[in-house]
Amino acid sequence: MGTKDYAAITGSINEGIKGLRDTGAVETLNQFTAMSKAAMTDGALDKKMKELIALSIGVATHCDGCIGFHTKALKRLGATDEEVSEALGVTVYMGGGPSLMYAADAWNAWQALKD
């Protein structure tokens, strides 16, 4: 089994989202975008910490798109290998073997998308 192409995965999802937006789900997608912006605004937790949490949830729920989008965001926010690794370690601790499988995928995505 090869490494997943997270750039292709997120690109394909973006195309699908555009299709949904173009065919009538505009208000739903606008509300989702607003919720995302509200949730990810700096507060007691900064944006990077929130993205680490989001990546962990993506791993725990086995969501390839979530892994791709949140690793890209972590790159933009200047996350380090150590921060991503520790967040993934907590995810494995809480989710066991299935989370370990997706944490390994998330690490590969991080390595591929961070540069």
UniProtKB/TrEMBL annotation:
Residue ranges constituting the Carboxymuconolactone decarboxylase-like domain according to the UniProt record: 28-108
Molecular-function annotations in GO: peroxiredoxin activity
Keyword match Oxidoreductase: yes
Protein name in the entry: AhpD family alkylhydroperoxidase like protein
Domain of life: Bacteria
UniProt keyword terms in alphabetical order: Oxidoreductase, Peroxidase
Claim: Cytoplasm is one of the keywords in the record: no
Pfam family, one: CMD
Taxonomic source organism: Hyphomonas jannaschiana VP2
